[in-house]
What we know:
The complex is a heteropentamer. Chain A is mostly helical. Chain A has helices spanning 2-30, 33-37, 44-54, 60-72, 86-121, 126-140, 143-157, 182-215, 218-225, 230-268, 273-283, 286-314, 316-321, and strands at residues 170-172, 175-177. In chain A, strands 1-2 form a two-stranded antiparallel sheet. Chain A is globular. Chain D contains twelve helices and ten strands. In chain D, strands 6-7-8-3-9-10 form a six-stranded mixed sheet, with helices on both faces. In chain D, strands 2-1-4-5 form a four-stranded antiparallel sheet. The longest helix of chain D is centred in the middle third of the chain and has 18 residues, at 188-205. Chain E is 29% helix and 22% strand. Chain E is an alpha/beta fold. Chains A and C meet through α2, α3, α7, α8 and α10 of A and α1, α6 and α12 of C.
Amino acid sequence: xxxxxxxxxxxxxxxxxxxxxxxxxxxxxxxxxxxxxxxxxxxxxxxxxxxxxxxxxxxxxxxxxxxxxxxxxxxxxxxxxxxxxxxxxxxxxxxxxxxxxxxxxxxxxxxxxxxxxxxxxxxxxxxxxxxxxxxxxxxxxxxxxxxxxxxxxxxxxxxxxxxxxxxxxxxxxxxxxxxxxxxxxxxxxxxxxxxxxxxxxxxxxxxxxxxxxxxxxxxxxxxxxxxxxxxxxxxxxxxxxxxxxxxxxxxxxxxxxxxxxxxxxxxxxxxxxxxxxxxxxxxxxxxxxxxxxxxxxxxxxxxxxxxxxxxxxxxxxxxxxxxxx
Amino acid sequence: xxxxxxxxxxxxxxxxxxxxxxxxxxxxxxxxxxxxxxxxxxxxxxxxxxxxxxxxxxxxxxxxxxxxxxxxxxxxxxxxxxxxxxxxxxxxxxxxxxxxxxxxxxxxxxxxxxxxxxxxxxxxxxxxxxxxxxxxxxxxxxxxxxxxxxxxxxxxxxxxxxxxxxxxxxxxxxxxxxxxxxxxxxxxxxxxxxxxxxxxxxxxxxxxxxxxxxxxxxxxxxxxxxxxxxxxxxxxxxxxxxxxxxxxxxxxxxxxxxxxxxxxxxxxxxxxxxxxxxxxxxxxxxxxxxxxxxxxxxxxxxxxxx
Amino acid sequence: xxxxxxxxxxxxxxxxxxxxxxxxxxxxxxxxxxxxxxxxxxxxxxxxxxxxxxxxxxxxxxxxxxxxxxxxxxxxxxxxxxxxxxxxxxxxxxxxxxxxxxxxxxxxxxxxxxxxxxxxxxxxxxxxxxxxxxxxxxxxxxxxxxxxxxxxxxxxxxxxxxxxxxxxxxxxxxxxxxxxxxxxxxxxxxxxxxxxxxxxxxxxxxxxxxxxxxxxxxxxxxxxxxxxxxxxxxxxxxxxxxxxxxxxxxxxxxxxxxxxxxxxxxxxxxxxxxxxxxxxxxxxxxxxxxxxxxxxxxxxxxxxxxxxxxxxxxxxxxxxxxxxxxxxxxxxxxxxxxxxxxxxxxxxxxxxxxxxxxxxxxxxxxxxxxxxxxxxxxxxxxxxxxxxxxxxxxxxxxxxxxxxxxxxxxxxxxxxxxxxxxxxxxxxxxxxxxxxxxxxxxxxxxxxxxxxxxxxxxxxxxxxxxxxxxxxxxxxxxxxxxxxxxxxxxxxxxxxxxxxxxxxxxxxxxxxxxxxxxxxxxxx
Amino acid sequence: xxxxxxxxxxxxxxxxxxxxxxxxxxxxxxxxxxxxxxxxxxxxxxxxxxxxxxxxxxxxxxxxxxxxxxxxxxxxxxxxxxxxxxxxxxxxxxxxxxxxxxxxxxxxxxxxxxxxxxxxxxxxxxxxxxxxxxxxxxxxxxxxxxxxxxxxxxxxxxxxxxxxxxxxxxxxxxxxxxxxxxxxxxxxxxxxxxxxxxxxxxxxxxxxxxxxxxxxxxxxxxxxxxxxxxxxxxxxxxxxxxxxxxxxxxxxxxxxxxxxxxxxxxxxxxxxxxxxxxxxxxxxxxxxxxxxxxxxxxxxxxxxxxxxxxxxxxxxxxxxxxxxx
Amino acid sequence: xxxxxxxxxxxxxxxxxxxxxxxxxxxxxxxxxxxxxxxxxxxxxxxxxxxxxxxxxxxxxxxxxxxxxxxxxxxxxxxxxxxxxxxxxxxxxxxxxxxxxxxxxxxxxxxxxxxxxxxxxxxxxxxxxxxxxxxxxxxxxxxxxxxxxxxxxxxxxxxxxxxxxxxxxxxxxxxxxxxxxxxxxxxxxxxxxxxxxxxxxxxxxxxxxxxxxxxxxxxxxxxxxxxxxxxxxxxxxxxxxxxxxxxxxxxxxxxxxxxxxxxxxxxxxxxxxxxxxxxxxxxxxxxxxxxxxxxxxxxxxxxxxxxxxxxxxxxxxxxxxxxxxxxxx
Lengths: 325, 306, 524, 325, 329
């Protein structure tokens, strides 16, 4: 267990380093930040001076090295666009994204599992088939279109729900939460549906497929033969075994919710990290982009790690053999 | 060819196909859309990719109404550039399908090769490939595509950026797509390589390449096919999504996704047709490909057969 | 009208104090980059700051210069290089400190310092001197007749406050600096900062001690400023009643907003012209055609200009929300005239003849570089141009990219044919000539990517900068415009229109610089 | 004669398929008395497992009982409501599957699976259920049962697992146990142990056992009576000694003869030509007629013979054999 | 660790024509936990001895059977004989030549246990049968059809796919494939254990017939003593990777010397054993990763004494066979 953890940690660090390097070498192709940082009245001399000041004249590896050296000390630099420490900017934005991801993830997970189980158990029923077909629409239209459609229906036509933003937030320590106010909660509805729909469909399909696989296992038949209640068989036996393979994919899906939030946040003007990243790209705000990508990798790596830990908790077979390679 | 079709018709898969109206409907839809895309130049009244055929004065012509300035007539209306929406959809469908199919093909070839090697060779090679897959997953597909797009835009000679865009999309989407293929093929390879027919092949003196590609791969085709189908739908949608973030097909040669991105700007302004028809086409395409994939998944799963 | 329940709740929550509070919820595509007034010379940044801070002189929505923190200004009789500004008395900063000449000297020097982004605007200033508690003298390097106009976005800070908070140097992001002044404000303006989360929400409350309470309407008691990047979402929010005022309404949504009973649109031609630039040098960046650069031939350039059907662009792409242009100079700028603004009608036969005359009977191929996120419908305009040019035989390959990629390309002269928009904050032709027509060099012509170089014009540009005799100056300018128009270095397209959408109860004049200042909003 | 524990009368199972309706079980009748082991033999596809599944009510859709009756201790059970049927499973009929590896839920401890079954069927406390589980494990010969009860299935060897499965099948003291190829997956030495265990339990508890297997040796060792199935039909039924030594049905004779033991010392084994026909492609008349050396026109044309066509009631054959092989 | 025992066979047999010589064959597998685990959790390196020091001869034209329960190493030996696996120690000589990857050139073939897994479901029968020939670059025209008829199927079946055949028919196809490269030796790994009794008889008969017709030599791997008794000339009994007894078939069945062999014979179900109360074997096969010291069978052996716990018995000739037991019966 410990060994496994250490090995994973090592791999994670490596992943972070690689992601960082890849990201870094990509930035210079996104554009040139200097034009955005200097006004219309700048002269060529200003541009050249700025380039040197920002260190953009140096080799990519050198820039990356400097970035890493500072990053290790917790210094991710100052945002070109906002002129504030990147850490501060990210910390300010993180709650919005994380809360949105949490809610959409929970929605996706809950409905994904419920619908997935239902469509697997009642495979041939009309309702199950309808759910399957309806869910396809969730993955057959781009997220942004669904978001825009929801805004048009629920905000513009019905005037029921807000079309943008987080509503009122409450600050608790360094964390701003929208969970504690009515408007904050209501503002979550449309974006979390938009964001979660796609993931829900994927999870549902996965759960269904795995469940169908598990349902034909001998131990399920044996459970039937022992006269256990259907509920107990479906939940205690089938679902539990379904969850083992579902955990991995679901973990990654939840991770990608944060990445997908880029689009949802743009559509709903959700003041989270995704929107920050889009702004950063437009402005070529290299420190923010770098920190964001590293953060996303960190989230993924952490989720991966948690998923693996979860395996140990769920599957006793792994506990004995000392973990998989 | 005919015998192939008839043998398909008579097979278990064919039986399942005949019993599924959704599958039949989806297949018809896919075929119709494919044909429409393929024969677009002969079907459409206009080549929307040729700027000299466009007349700005036709801009925003509503469907089935004559444009008062030019007396032109458009079935699905015209867009903001005076392009015939119908023609543009068919041409856009071509781009979308091309991006989708080639991206999936790219991901498939990459994923299948790596998965086969990982599963068959095992050991350290397997670890390296699968850890690479983990890293790949760590980098969300959208971000990969955005960054690759950024790079290519920067690296490619300016003159070629337009053409490059499509290929970049293909590579970017394909690159974010290979992991599921690799995983499933690796799994299949690990199962199949211990099957006796592989031993028999080794005994016959077959080399690893023959064994991997002639023996193991054909037996992993079912899940590959299912993943490919679903990936195709996902790739087409991904292209549309990327287009929304400004990294899609160029506006002069729009894909369905680009059309939708452009069209959504007019969602509130009354020119519904610019968004509606492309979105409907995309929906139908993705829906029918997805439904086919769904059906295929169930039909090819021997465990579900009664 | 129905209001979203929760939106109302939010609004109520924000109206903290006085009864009869008037909250203006204001949406915009972008947000200010900083609150430090000298750190960024950027439109939205200046606009947001201008609600809370003030310059000596500002430009009223009608385009006239308006006394603000200075009540009078004039060139010193004895010395044409010295401007004397009389300061308004009794003005207080938000923290209660009095405003005086020390603050002006300090602020102007801060704005002129190395790290300041505003220094380019007032580069002509040689020295600032306090000549009394409410009088300052500004000495320029040479005579500068338009100095006050150049100072409309140089805001005044409280010296004591800045020094106490160690923000004496403007924030220098490049050096990784963060200053107190970039997130806090202590100005003299009509609104005080309540809270600010960048890119999310900035709340300002009326400064009831504002010196101009009687001069301006200042009816809005609270301003909630929300950047909403996605145009569709922004318009939706206005339509659903979640916003009261949005700038930059997409042209296609104007009709929709107008048709909404509670909303209206205010329109004004913007101080910004949009045009194409052409590489007029001997060498095409993309490689010469038959050993020559067709764009070097003035006949080709004129033919191309003629091929652009400005009226069609105006009607279809801009839906009428533009003024077709014959000159790359916004209509308010000194030097603009009707004759200059004329443009040739599109005549395909004539264009083809002109091209044939220049030796391009079968046309040629060229790439058009275009931003897709900078000007109103920039990409669509370029697409339309591609189509129009192709109809006269010029094959155009469109390269539309984000401004982050586009502007560096222009800066590095990696383009032959590009779109550009240009606003003139000084409302004077000299600004255009300086940046767009002067031979590209370290200090001049920094936006001239056409490789156009006319030594005679260059010397004229330097001459008008120092010419104090307005009549003589106007004549020179007219002459210069005729020269460049004849050379067809740029292909003018149009002057953009501004459309501000708001609740019908507001009355305001649209500012040509797109600088909304809430103090001008009156409420019926 | 006392009421048999299990009485199956003319049981038929049908599966609708694209090739028409298939009948994997066709009018099968037999009884099992308390304390008796009935061996059901036949080759794969003969319908022996399907019969077991039909008795316990575990047919997987679309297979269903299309005719006949199943009586358990004088109560008809095939027509019961789903819920009542469930209560019978495990409580009154226990079942043992072929592969002990897959019969147990890998994620639950052996104790959890045992107590779960006991609590489902018997009105005992959790503590008692656990106590009972330990007893059961002891009874089936698991050493240190009190400690092993909290182990997971993968921590047991194959033979031990099959013992656990038997304990599970017996946990609610059923009167009938259906053992479906319980030793096929086991090594010879372990197989002997499991057969010994089954026989002992049967004797000690007076349980009726339906032992489904393809191994004539196992039948000979364990069963009291034997039923031979061919192509879904009962070919022959009788005491083990009779059926093995003096088979009456030609198929049964061929089956016995083709075992290597029966042909000991012979150069070639006796063999039945051909193979069992696929369901849905059964020949007219006696299903065995294409492979039967003595088949006559009657065998090919007349309706399928049944046990009652044999004067001795042993073989479903028009020309039953007499005498030894 | 003892050196591989000097393999001795009775003098009169030495001159005989032996096709296969297995000499001191051993195979170990590394089943150690990964390096980092060993480092941190201080776990030792662990090896699984699948086969230890096994020697035997197979005469040309005879059937040599290897019997044993799971984990006895019989399949591993089979794979080493055909050259699919490299021995860790010892040699396999076929016709005097070392078996290895190069010996796969057709001289040795294999028939597999599971007729469903041993034929590639995506290949036509023709290609399956011809593969050993085609892979060596040989001409394969007509071979499949010819062999199909040899194994009792029809030449027309060559164009079909495996799933169109029953289990017995598939095993016939597997046999045809083994014959395609004209082998001297066929290793049959539980060729009938997946088949029904009546079909098993058919396949066993076919194998006997082919052996005579082609002059083949079989190494017959099985756990089913009755099948082995029918097919084999000589039998080797394996327990936990070691050969514990080797003898001609009749001698083994009538007069087994090793207690394990006896236990196996006793435990095997018999058709004449109605209601027999067999003496049930004690215990189970130990974990091959950590086998008991000394004679691996001692924990289950009724005859075990102190010496069995301490030392591994050497192979000793008895009558026409050999046995490795301190207390051979």
